[in-house]
Amino acid sequence: MLRQANGLILSAWVDNRRVFMEKMTGTKADRPQLERLKEEVREGDTVYIESLSRLGRSTKDLLTLIDWFQNKGVTVISDKENIDTSTPTGKLLTTLMCALAEFERDLTVERTREGLKSARARGRKGGRPTANKKDIAIALSLYDSKDYSISEICKRCGISQGTLYKSVNARKAEVPQT
Predict the structure, then answer these.
(1) What is the layout of strands, in order, in the sheet containing 83-84?
(2) Which of 7, 54, 145, 175 is 20 to 30 A from 90 via CA?
(3) 94 CB contacts (<8 Å, ≥6 apart)?
(4) How many domains does the chain have?
(5) Main-chain dihedrals φ then ψ at residue 120, nearest 5 degrees
(6) Among residues 87, 43, 94, 89, which one has the least CA distance to residue 69?
(7) How would you class 7 by CB atoms within 10 Å of its CB: exposed for 0-12, middle for 13-18, buried for 19 or more?
């Protein structure tokens, strides 16, 4: 990949077989692609990441990961922040950026909670609207006929599979077991 930064052309060769893209958020503890990356890196490798905030769940977690890579002799370079963790300045900037990213995330979570609380106080209710009882009744009768697949029933009645299964299970719970 070639890119221009401050008039300089930087090049970094990245082997497409060694690109690891996590499909889930960095806040999750179980990240299979990160584990795969940790298994495959060798001393002298360089790990390029899009952003520091994408690598770790918290400042502590990110610093632990970067320390783990450094102990293995692996350099971590963040594209967004333009930080190279192999330098003293890069280490300092990593710590500062991690703290700022965690602070920003905590503020976002706090504001979201306050917004939801305020909306509830005004009588607003979040989540999906409840399904129409007529649609559920039709869906249950189609389900009982066994002529249609679950996806066909849901599409025809405009309900989700979860709603259909929840209704089927609720109906089973109402019927006394003999």
Answers:
(1) 46-49, 75-78, 83-84
(2) 7
(3) 52, 62, 63, 66, 78, 83, 85
(4) 2
(5) -65, -40
(6) 43
(7) exposed
Q: Is residue 128 part of a domain?
A: no
Q: Where do we find the tokens 């497409």? A: 16
Contacts 24+ apart (CB under 8 A), 20-28: 22/54, 26/53, 26/54, 26/55, 26/56, 26/57, 27/57, 28/57
**Model confidence pLDDT, tens digit, residues 118-141:** 999 999 887 777 888 999 999 999
| Global confidence as pTM | 0.51
Q: HEC states along 48-109?
A: EECCHHHHCCCHHHHHHHHHHHHHCCCEEEECCCCEECCCHHHHHHHHHHHHHHHHHHHHHH
Instruction: Tell me, yes or no, whether 101 and 137 share the same domain.
Output: no
Across the range 139-153, mean pLDDT stands at 93
| Same domain membership, residue 71 and residue 24 | yes
**Residue range(s) defining the domain that contains residue 166:** 133-171
